[in-house]
Specification:
The structure is a single chain. By secondary structure, the protein is α/β, with parallel strands linked by helices. Helix content is 45%, strand content 19%. Strands 3-2-1-4-5 form a 5-stranded mixed β-sheet. Helix 2 links the parallel strand 4 and strand 5. The longest helix is centred in the middle third of the chain and has 20 residues. It starts with a strand and ends with a helix.
Amino acid sequence: MKIIYGIDCGATGGIAKLDGSKVELFSFRDHTIQDMLALFDLVFSQPGEKFALVERVHAMPSTFRGTSTSWALAENFAIVRTLLAANHVAHDLVLPEKWQRELGCRFGKKVKYDLRKKLLRSKAQSLFPRVKEISKDVADALLIAYYARKVYK
């Protein structure tokens, strides 16, 4: 069976790993590049067929409270794609609008960031009620992995 990963590239994003009915979650919060390297070596070391779906990011300075946050997101995106390639993990990209629309998670631009993150976490908890450690850091990644499992069978 193929192992599915969802990846949210934000500095406080993370990786969700779906291996059959087993779910594992890994946050990027406070990770240096060296921490990311070690994390990817750990997460992707299991043998078997793997596929990762990565949230595609693009510059949106007004949405992300300035250009420095947008730049940090772009750096993480590049690090994630590089580490996936180094670990020989097949992957694709998905726009947030696409997976969110498919899962009924489009809340509109008027919904503030913190509320949107809470709503996404609630959605992830409703889809994975037995997973207790769903934080706002990894909720998006888990939803992306769920979407990937539906779309990339």
